[in-house]
Please model this.
Amino acid sequence: MNPTTSDFAPANPGRRTLLKYSLLGLGAAALASPLSQALAATPGQKLQAGLQLYTVRDLMAQSVADTLKLVAGIGYKEVEFAGYFNLKAKEVRRLLDSEGLTAPSAHLPLEVLQSQLDQVIEDAQTVGHHYIVLPYLTEPQRQTIDQYKSYAAFLNKAGEACKKAGLQMAYHNHDFEFQAIQGQVPYDILLKETDADLVKMELDLFWTVKAGLSPLQLFERSPGRFPLWHVKDMNQKGEMVDVGTGVIDFAPMVAKAELSGVKHAFIEHDNSDNRVRTIKQGFDSLSRLLK
Model:
């Protein structure tokens, strides 16, 4: 991306440090980490480790009930949905309640939001979501700046409907939103042309760093705009890895948690080769750091 066309500048790779944790050796290393120290210096921080259920989508497809039981058994209290897997909203709510879980947010595709927003809002109220998140744009949906301008207008309209229902609209990023199109950066458009009260941002820390950006710049530019985080880690090759086993330095981000406005942090891994290991590793690592 051409930095002259955006309000963002590349992150400084020198600020990244290796988080030296493993599944069996989190204790002392985690408690002595920069991230732990940053959290200790953040009074009133009440973040807890949540889970984006896309991480275990294959298990969800087999049995939502069994997967939620597994997730709760690991210790999670909050989850974010990416589909109900043919269950009705009332049944989803019943399963959540039976496992002592809440679901502050849910991902819904653009087409569903555009064609079924009233039903989405009704289901969100039933399940207990507060945030409705547009999670992804397909390649044909992200070819021009005019497309992004139309999405900003739609998000504002959807945000108004959500606000009337006591809900909040949000947008989740990948890395492509930071790549210039026609001399402009799409994420600039989304931030500038959406109402900050009507449309919040779910910041995916992995994809933001992957794009060469520092989340801290976003916090400074748009304070309070990022109530949701996706916590995903990266190895030195730039590949997604289990949280706590990679090189992303989360400490400066957490130190600015209040500035960002974060309220919910969801562990995620798009393509884990061992779902159970991944969600346990993520929960144990982040939970130790959030003490």
